[in-house]
Write the C-alpha cells for this entry.
Amino acid sequence: MMSKIKPLSRRDFLKLSGITASGLAFERIRTQLSFSPLPSEAILVARVAVKEIKIYQEPNYESEELGSCWRDELIYVYEKVTSPYGPVRNPRWYRIDGGYVHTAYLQPVDTSLNEVSYHIPDTGQLAEVTVPVTLSFQKDRFEEWKPLYRLYYQSVHWVREIGYGPNGQAWYGIKDDLLPIVYYVPAHHLRLVQPEELTPISADIPPEKKMILVNRTRQTVTAFEDGNEVFHTDVSTGIPYDSPGNNGVSTITPLGNFNVNIKMPVRHMGNGNITADIFEYELPGVPWVSFFYKTGVAFHGCYWHDNYGNEMSHGCVNMRPEEAKWLYRWVTPESSPTARVTNGYGTMVQVVV
C-alpha cells in the first residue's frame, strides 16, 4: 500500500501558504522549467508537445530548416502568421526567435500560480493545471520521492488531499482515475475547479431537442437546440487508418447515429504504465470527456496538439479544452461537480462524411 504524505494542520498550512523563493527554485530544478516573465514584444508562450519540431526560414515547409525545438521547450511567439504556403487545413504558423514554426504540435500555455486551499472535500475536488508543465512525484516503498508523470497545462485531475511535498511546501495529492495510485504536485500549480463552473448549460431545453453533428470531411462539430445552431468549432477526428498498433481497433471515428452514454470530467488515457517514457502514449488528466461509442470514442479536451481541422486522433474527437468543457456541460446526461462517472442515455450524436 502506498504511503500518504503527512497531513497538514491549520498551523502548518499558514506557515506554508506563502510561496518561498527556495520552493520555486526547487521546482525549476526538478522540472527543468523556468516561469520567467513574458517579454514585452512577445504575444504568447507555446510548449513543444512532441519530440522535435523544425524551425524554418519562412512559414513554409519547403523553405530552409534553421534548427529544432524539443519536447516541453517553451517558445516565445512574436507573431501569428497565416501562410499562403499552407498546409491547406492548418496554415497557421508562429514567428519565433530565429525563424518560423508550424503550430500543429505547439500548445499555447500560460503560467498562473494559485492560492493554496486548505480544505479538500472528502469527495475530492477537480483541479486544472495552470502552468506549462509540472512534474508529479510518488513515494516508493522506502519512503523516497520518485518522479512520475509530467502533467500539462489545462489537464484536469482529482485532488484528494493536501500535505507536505519533497521540498517541504504544500502539495496536492492526486488520485489517478485509471490506476490505484496517488501522486503529488505543488499545490500552487493547480487551480481548484469551483462547482459553479460545471453547472449544466441549457438545462431547460428538453434532452431530445439537443443534437451534435460531427462532420469528418470538414473536421467540425456543431451543436443544435431544436434545430438552431448554438455552437460550432473545428476539431480533430480519428486518423483514417485501421491500425494493428491500436490493439486492433480502427482509428477512424465511426459514422452513424449514437448517443452520449458516459461522461467523465477527467480520464487517464493510455496503458497505465507508470514507467512510461514521455514520448509514449500515456495521457493522464485528459479533460471533459463525453463518450458516445462502444470502443471508447469520445469528445474530449486535448493538450498535446493544436492542429484542429486535421485528423489526429485514435478515433476520438479532439477539442480545445475550453470548448470540450462547454460541450461537457451542455450534453446530457447531466453531471454533478463531484461525479467521477455519469451514465445515461444522453444527447444524440450524428457523425457524417
Remarks:
- Residues 1-33 have pLDDT under 50 and may be disordered.
- The helical segments are 10-16, 21-31, 321-330.
- Residues 47 and 74 are 5 Å apart (CA to CA).
- The longest strand covers residues 282-293.
